[in-house]
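Ticket #4471: structure export looks truncated?
Reporter: QA, pipeline team
Priority: medium

Steps to reproduce: submit the single chain below to the structure queue and open the exported record.
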Amino acid sequence: MITSKIKNYAILILFILILISSVITFIFIKRLRIEQNEYSNLYNNFDALKLENTGLNEKARVYKLTIEDLVYLQDSITIKLLSTMDSLKIKESKIKSLQYYLEHFIKRDTVIFKDTIFVPELNIDTTLKYPYYNLFLHLEYPNIIIAEPSIFNEKEIFVANERVTIKPPKKYWIQRIFQKKHTILTIDVVDKNPYMITKKQRFIEIIK
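Actual output as written to the record:
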């Protein structure tokens, strides 16, 4: 009888030890995966920063950051992105990705007239400056005009999730509650240059 009880206690203790060991192993594996993921993200972000600082001759790398990371960074670009995101009223829980581009267009044209159009010894350089547009002008005797427009644009792109009704929404909100919904991706493109006009755009998500 005593031997049987000892055997049962031994089995129970063994079961508890196995259970504890399994829990510890599960926690260890989960923690290891988290650390591996954090290390992977850190290495990825390091490469992304290196490519960003060395120019755009190579393929850019996407940063892997949380909203908390963005708020903590507080560099000039993330401050602009977060500010625009707030003005667009995009919720932090809905945002999927943020993109920033600083675009610059510059082109020089030279016009030489057949006739004399300037007074002798004229040689003028002047620049018209605006927040996102500069125009350099060179006027030279007897007939040379050089124009060099320089255009800057900050483009910000926000990709977010949004729950919308599959069919056109009903007129009354009580009816919309019972309508089936699905999740879509919405794109907000913001050009800071007031002279910039986007005539056409298309965004495609590859599904599998």
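Status: closed, not a bug. The export was complete when the record was re-opened. Leaving a note from the reviewer for reference: The chain has a mean pLDDT of 84.
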